[in-house]
Amino acid sequence: MSRLLTAIRRFSAGTGAVPVVCCSMAMSGADSPALADGVQIVRDEAGKLWFEHHGDRFMSLAVNTVTPRAWNPRAGTEYYDAIPNQFGGDRSAWEASTLSILDDAGFNTLGCWSDPALSDERFWQTPVLYVADHAADRFLAGLEPDFEERVRERTRAVLNQHPDTSRILGVFLDNEIAWWGRTGWDMIPTYTMLEAAFEREAGDPARLAAMRFIQDRFASPRALGETTGVELRSWDELDVAYLQRCRSPETTDLRRAFGAMVADAYFKRATPIVREEIPHALILGVRFAGDAPDEAIRTCGRYCDAVSINHYRPDERSTQEILDRYWLLTERPLMITEFSWRAHENLSGNPNNRGAGAVVATQADRAESYRRFIEHISAFPMVVGWSWFEWADQSPQGRFDYENSNYGLVSIRHERYERLLSEMASVNSQAPSIHAKSNRPYPTGPVERRGVRYRPGQHPDRPATVSLMADPAAPTEVWHSADGTIALAPAEGGLQVTYDTGTTYGIGLSMFGPSGSRIEAGSEFACDLDGYDWIVLDAVIPEGLQVQVIVNESGSNDPNSPTFDTSAGDDAESFISAPRRGRGGESQYRFRIADMVKQVYWGNQTGRREIEMRAVQSIAIQFQGQPREGVVLIRDVRLER
Question: Contact, 336 vs 386, CB < 8 A?
Fold first, then answer.
């Protein structure tokens, strides 16, 4: 084989007797390296997928953020800084200790954000490139004319940090891109990649591309308005505010089609440049933040060698659902590139009140959770690796974004979590055998995304409307992002909310049902609010400020909780509305309960997806965005038929 012009990238879902090779080398020229110089992906005689190098098949077992010092620590906090504090300034001693711990625990890969100077023949490396840099809406970068140049610059900058690129198994293009449009985690039906494009300034390439996309499909503004059900008199009126008023099925299809175009532009333009710059490495996807739109997942599979998912759900059912879904959309090897457990019992004093993943009681519980999870995922024929998050505990006072969790294999003082490491060594050594011997089949059947159901009961004895402010079962509670603030004060005819939304998820207030609607089972102030169709907010909200309402069922809790209280008959889910924008004066904002979608920031993620208003813990109002500081006056929050 003197020339290899294109790699073999597709392989049958069947289980043929001859292994099929999938590699990432798009090479040409007599001096191209031999095929086996890079890691390949192969299918064995039983149909299982593996990484392979020089004839040795393996799974990638990684730990993220293997570095001697926490990145960008906040002043006045305790954090991992092992070389000066525990190794007397001797970097080589730290390296020897760290690599020995990882090797003894059965890991073979240094995951994302690991020190690129840690080059050792026992370990592969998997850097993240951030080919579109770090802007929140970087999914639109493929629509910009200079994208290839940026991809090349970013890729070279990362590779230049690695003294030995031969140990790079593969690269990630990015991490947790906001494919939904607003963030990487939550789906807002009326804020997608299309709305994000129109939120850019006039003349921006992405906004111009979005306008061309729509004008190519509709001969006139009137034709678009007839399709969306919202009148449009001129193209000048087509903006984010207009699009967010459009909720027809046809508009949903339009958003998905634009999302597919955006994803295709990103992957189609980025992947050839990366392959040119590092032809021996696999492209391992973009580390999706749990779920993602079908169009983004499917497109990633067309252009990448593997698909990577960050997944912090502790239960097996949700893991199987997401692995099945990703395989059916891509037929690509899959990697779980972030997961973890935290424990109340830890050596760093971590409070664990910020961060993803379940919190368990002890280090023995962490160890057992790891064993169960690896035994589960290694049995899937399409799973080729995973990455634990992360090497060292976070600062107990909070890292750069205030996460303060016991994620580490070592404490902030480089103390080993022996029970966890021992269990990791045991199950990591067994994982290849579990993978090889498993008889779990590949998933089959159509990809299904289950919607949300709401079937209110008939309660003619109840009033047609009920206020949540008249006689609540408990006082209103407030909450806010790390850099946000909220203060409540009574005001004439209502409630005054003075706020700073901060830069992340904003601020909110949780309200409870009337005292007469309380139920005996479930959470302390759970209420039966069944029989209503609308949540109505009468308020003065600053123009442009985003507002949404949330229904939390009685047992709802952190989505990573190992168990949920379902004693009230609900299944502990949480649901969120599409956003509205403040109008600046006295206004009524109506939210149809049946139009709400499942929330991923809160609540049980494996429930029935059915809104149970007969067992409601709270109804929350959330504010985000600009103007960042201001005052909201709430006149009333009520339920209506």
Answer: yes
